[in-house]
Design brief:
Structural class: alpha+beta
Low-confidence stretches: none
Radius of gyration: 16 Å
Number of strands: 6
Mean pLDDT: 82
Order of helices and strands: EEEHEEEH
Strand content: 25-35%
Number of domains: 1
Helix content: 25-40%
Distance between the termini: 30 Å
C-alpha cells in the first residue's frame, strides 16, 4: 500500500477485547486495546500522524511499528447508523519528510487521506461480511467449509 515495505493492521477482537495483529517477528498476538499510538487511534477514532513515532509520548514497542520515519495511524471504520472502529492501520508516511526541513507536522495530503479512507472502509466491510458469514455457518450447524 502506497509504495512502502511495511505496514501493520490490527483488528479488534470482541471475544478478547484486544487488538490482534503481528509483532515485529510477524507472530500474531493480542494487545490491550488502549496501548501505544495504535490504541489511542482505536479509542478515539481519530487518525494520528507523527514525524518520529519512536519518540512519540504514546509509543509502545509491544504494538507500534519501530520506525524513526513519519508514520500515520488510521482507524478502520465504516459509517452506518453509528461509527464502529474495527481496528487500526499503521503505515510509514514518506511524504511527510517534505515537512521535516521546517519541522512542521505536515498533514497527509488529500490523495493519501482519500486512499486510507477508502481502504479503511473496504477492510471494515470485509470484516463485517466475514462476521456475517461465520454467523450464517453457525446457524446451519456447519463448523468448517
Amino acid at each position: 500500500m502506497m509504495s512502502v515495505k511495511e505496514s501493520r493492521i490490527y483488528i479488534y477482537d470482541k471475544d478478547t477485547d484486544c487488538l490482534t495483529g503481528p509483532d515485529q517477528n510477524d507472530v500474531w498476538n493480542s494487545y490491550p486495546k488502549n496501548i501505544g499510538i495504535a490504541g489511542q487511534v482505536f479509542q478515539t477514532g481519530i487518525y494520528e500522524q507523527t514525524l518520529n513515532p519512536y519518540n512519540h509520548e504514546l509509543f509502545d514497542n509491544r504494538i507500534d511499528m519501530e520506525i524513526a520515519v513519519p508514520m500515520i495511524c488510521w482507524p478502520i471504520k465504516i459509517r452506518e447508523k453509528k461509527e464502529t472502529i474495527y481496528g487500526v492501520i499503521e503505515i510509514p508516511n514518506i511524504k511527510a519528510f517534505e515537512g521535516l526541513a521546517t519541522a512542521q507536522n505536515v498533514k497527509p495530503d488529500y490523495y493519501l487521506t482519500e486512499t486510507l479512507e477508502f481502504f479503511s472502509k473496504q477492510l471494515a466491510q470485509t470484516l463485517i461480511n466475514n462476521e456475517k458469514f461465520i454467523d450464517f455457518k453457525q446457524s446451519l450447524g456447519i463448523s468448517s467449509f
